[in-house]
Records
---
Amino acid sequence: MNKANNSISEKHKIAGLVKKINRPSFVLMAFSSIGMLACHYYWGIFTPYNYLTAKQDILNNKIQIIDTGPPNPLEQKVATSMGFQMIHVSCTKGRPFYNGIKHYNNVMHEAIKQKSGSDWQERFDSTLKSLITESTSQKVMEKK
């Protein structure tokens, strides 16, 4: 009987020791998981386009803006003339994907600003607008 009580108390000691060892590990894992989920949702860290991939693309001299709208060949033409590319992706990926694109594009906008000047967006928009106007007027002339 004494031997049985000893083995039971040893099992309790071992179980208590295991609980003490695992509790901090469990808490660390829980906080790490929550942190990773937050990074994924708010910054799109585990998506193809995010802050980190933007920095890597800049290092590789791959300047591009990600757009979720329909492709516009005139946009690509203006972007190429200004030294960057427009990449169009599907718009059914979810909130983390959009958040990643937002952070990716913010980094790329800064890189383009350093390369082309702070008024690059205005020049891009005005050139695009004039090309669209020119293209529209050509289509009207062709119909007559």
Note: The first helix runs from residue 2 to 43.
---
Amino acid sequence: MRLSNQGEAVRGRSEGGKYNPNMARIGDADYETISVTCDFCHANLRLNRRDDLRELSAISGRNLTCSSCHREFWITGDIVNTPYEMFIFAADAHFESKHHMLAVMSLAQAWELFLATFAYSNFVYRPSWLQQRHAAAREELTRCEQKLEHATRNFNIRNLVNLTTHTIVRQMHPRTLAEAEPMIEQIEQQRLHRDPSNEDIATITDDEIHAAVQRLRNLQIVDLRNKVGHKQAYRPTAKEVMACIEEEIVFLHHIRDLFGVGDFDDFAADAVETPRWFQP
């Protein structure tokens, strides 16, 4: 779990006036909430990011007014993991508490977010960083982001698996945003949310990538999520959930590197593997 440590030196003080970094550190943070202990009255506060903090990005440091004693203190140390990683952590917590249905739903959400991140990596982030800087680059980036968001707005996990497959089969890997924009438009025009044919998949010549695509198309979590989340309200066994956690999440991290998946900040930090189709 990655933590944000910026702002550590900004004051957060206990009743005696001495800085206490432990009291001001954010703990038990997830995608929706954080918990923190007030420096002054020691009240344990559980805060919703949208309703209470009105801030959805990771908190490097900010002042917070305690809802119990109404005194202001500094908080820092939020997690800065990607959204899909946060849902993997949530799934682990749900599994430990034997809430298997919630674990399945969190794992499915993690996969949806990961596959969406692949699309943004491929069509927006990588071409943005590969191309030469120019005056209209920011406008191009925003336009491509908006077009991709519109094209995939109703996609479920199966649709995103199909889009990933078509992207690889058709070698849709732009090097500039000018190349990316017409490719993004093809997502709707050519209905890339639909299943590709076996003949199309067979055209992938790289054995490792071909095997990864085939495994991606047979994720257990897809069918298990459908059984849990729909009217059947299926209650899965620990064995069923564990297969999705231990085997399929390891696979997720494998294809993260194989397919070169990362968020915008990862690309900015040059922390994303170059996928094989971009290597000499």
Note: The radius of gyration is 22 Å.
---
Amino acid sequence: IAENSPLYPVDPQKALEHFANKHGVPVQSLHPDVAMIRFDLPTTDRGQPIVIRSWQIAHAISKADLRIALFTYTLLAKEFGSASALDEMNLLDRELSAAEFAPIVGESPDDVRKQKPWWKFW
């Protein structure tokens, strides 16, 4: 993001506000540079009622770079409120909330792109 952009510096809380408002959920601050939302989306798959639990995590890598990680967990609607499903979702929630992200932007040097593919033998 350019320094003259209204989005500069990036803010993980603001990055998730649109989806948080859309789904009526709060943005949770996990760390100074990390925020998360979670929401449930009831829908159907081939006529079968399901519920998709979604987590979106925003991580400000720098003042100009933002990483967004998306995770989903899908269950049949009739199983969604069961004790075992709630235990699994609580476990996922704890683990995702504790996730740590790389503090740098990944880059691929130009010379790596020019190398011969590993599967070519000539």
Note: The mean pLDDT is 88.
---
Amino acid sequence: MKRKDIFILIFYFIIASSCSFYFFNRTTVYEHINSISSFIFLPLLLFIALSFYVYILVLKDRQILFFKLFITFTAILVVLVIVFELTKPNYTYNEAKGIIEKEYNVTVVETEVKSILDRDIDKEVYKITALKDSQRLVFTFNPYSKEIFILK
């Protein structure tokens, strides 16, 4: 493998790592609901697959395919970011807490469990616990449609 090829692989590893870091930071504000956290590992898995394929191409001495492969890698990463941005929830967990506090005049209390599965829509929703006049209330907040339900 040529020195230039190694630098290109390192460059693409940095890009894949940056992309994974971006997904990690973005999914954290959504409490990793509805499998959006699976986006975190996709760039690194793609890089690993790319590395194996590049190794095979270098063994066969096919430099033209090497360049096309990196163009494809970049295009796939761009598509991953676009798909993530289109499928992420419309509201973060903190935005949901603010909406509930404002609409129901309650004080939100932090809890360990921040999402639950809503079997009606087969998606996770935020679970938000709040206090109103010393009474504990549990809300669900659909981060896609802004629907709010009181459980208790």
Note: The chain has a mean pLDDT of 84.
